[in-house]
Amino acid sequence: MPAAVSDSAGGMSLSFSTPFLRVDAQRVRRNIESLARYADEHRLHVRPHTKTHKSKLIAELQLRAGARGLTVAKVGEGEVMAEVDGDVLLAYPAADAARARRAAELARKCNLRVAVDTHFAIDALDAAARSAGSTIGILVDLDVGMHRTGVPTPELALELARSVLKSRHLRLDGLFCYPGHIRTPAREQAEALAAVQALLAATLDLWKRDGIEARIVSGGSTPTALQSHLVPAYTEIRPGTYVYNDMNTVHGGYCSLDDCAAHIVATVVSDAVAGKVVIDAGSKTLTMDPCLWSPSAGHGHVVEYSEARVARLSEEHGELDITKCARRPKVGQRVSIVPNHICPCVNLQDRVVMVDGSETRELRVDTRGMLT
Amino acid sequence: MPAAVSDSAGGMSLSFSTPFLRVDAQRVRRNIESLARYADEHRLHVRPHTKTHKSKLIAELQLRAGARGLTVAKVGEGEVMAEVDGDVLLAYPAADAARARRAAELARKCNLRVAVDTHFAIDALDAAARSAGSTIGILVDLDVGMHRTGVPTPELALELARSVLKSRHLRLDGLFCYPGHIRTPAREQAEALAAVQALLAATLDLWKRDGIEARIVSGGSTPTALQSHLVPAYTEIRPGTYVYNDMNTVHGGYCSLDDCAAHIVATVVSDAVAGKVVIDAGSKTLTMDPCLWSPSAGHGHVVEYSEARVARLSEEHGELDITKCARRPKVGQRVSIVPNHICPCVNLQDRVVMVDGSETRELRVDTRGMLT
Fold this sequence. Notes:
The structure is a homodimer.
Chain A: E1 5-6, E2 20-24, H1 25-41, E3 45-46, H2 56-64, E4 70-72, H3 75-81, E5 87-90, H4 97-106, E6 111-116, H5 119-132, E7 136-141, H6 154-165, E8 170-176, H7 186-209, E9 216-219, E10 236-237, H8 247-251, E11 262-270, E12 276-279, H9 283-286, E13 301-302, E14 309-313, E15 318-321, E16 334-338, H10 342-346, E17 351-356, E18 359-364
Parallel strand pairs in A: 2-17, 3-10, 4-5, 5-6, 6-7, 7-8, 8-9, 9-10
Antiparallel strand pairs in A: 1-18, 2-11, 11-12, 11-16, 12-15, 13-16, 14-15, 17-18
């Protein structure tokens, strides 16, 4: 871990050149502990998705607060996160031979589970595990309404489960779903989650009648995290964004601005054009991800100038519309931006600057850019 | 340079895990040569913006084809590109002290020019150059309609020029503009470029009456590149995207699909949901940048299935709507995607896979992720 540096600006990390991502360690701990309390209360395991922070240190904080295992999207991420915990879920259809080979190798070093939704993936993983001399745990991916991956019916989930049971180098561990389509306010969320529960229950019932047990039912996302108890079938949830939060979770009503633990610190570099200033954070720093709830809200929230709108991004320019600001940001001044979507934003940073009270340290983004 | 590897699949680079960015070297050379010919014909210098490829090797190809100097957005990029050429333009308002210090240091090693649009930046750069014992060339940034950076009038451009002339450690080299607002078809482009020419001419005339010469008038972008002769004031143009092209340049009428030299190669990983298949390239591979001309066109073009639509991206999932496809892509199969916006897409890759006929080599993205 890099040496801690005293931060004379009380968290503004003046010694670092902009733009950079400043992470507030106290808010991170608060977010982690808050979800851990909820999960405890409802006897749910948390298996956080590390795609958000991509950091071994943050994963350790989550494990210390009670997380049971970690979630990744790529085998490369799994190889890194297996250094932190021996229980890793690859929440991704590892269908092709190259991915299956690496997954099977990884399964020799940790308890690896993979979510699958095709016979193709089952065959590929079984063959790879046979070659590697490992066993891979399988969760069958059920589409509960997102319509991205997952089989659409209990019957097809049963077919896949039977196929897994016939595969000598795979172990059927349960069911998997991603309710990523549910991002509405609490009441509509409750109705949508009731439908998720009904589909999961029907599938589990069908499996049971076939003598098949699901020890794990893995679901959840940050927008639905605190409503997960409405899906009694769940044994674990996999939120990612909650650790940092962003404007999507704020606008979605999941958290407040004070719960946002990661800000892009940027410098005003131009005020030559009337009605606006330009900051040195564009789409190569903030991403072009829109605010899902409020696309017209712009490309992030300016903490120090809440009336400013991040109106347009080029790759390295962020244009703030300041026509509604009482005060005008000055050239050379620093501002803090809450990004719309923190996960791909983190993935653009080689390191983040972590501020913990008066201490500041650089934190490597360990699995940044791991595409495979 | 990494050792060349024979590519048994005639350019499909089967030995690399997906997703990755495949670059066709022959198309790159063709794109570079085609622009070089145009520039020669019109006695324009090409100073390519390296933000697109972020590669020293591609910059060398551009220089070998006649490019005069290189363009960067960040000082960090300039430090790397100065290893390739001794003439670097920082096309960015280096207004804050940290950036100015690094720029002044870089100016000791190469002929560095910086585009400025504030007195603040002039003062910062002059002070930094004094400390570093260097001289920085200055281009005054004039807003020709993009309304992002640049002073809006000839009079304000004259004010800045006078200020530069009074700064002992700066050298006034000329004018700078970025006609990034012009992305319309050729005829409207011609009218808009006439307005650019009028504003540049008025500024140059005002400078001349004050005894100030602009040796360089730097402008251009990829969409307007081949119309640059309509702005006789230009001495150089700074296109970036032309080297690879993307769906923005295709839909904008600048090039054809055959001119696209960079494709994301992805694998189909799921076909569980009706009417779609999922590929392993999401927003962390392709970016969320919309197609500027045709936002409903989706998140890129699938070469092998032109009727498919990249309908939705999550971070690691790309959902192809295949309801209009006569053939259905199969799980495990590879497809090639032309991204909407190649520049931030390249910035997500640690390396690209360069295919040159039957030879394949990995190419490092030298200035990837250089935020400062």
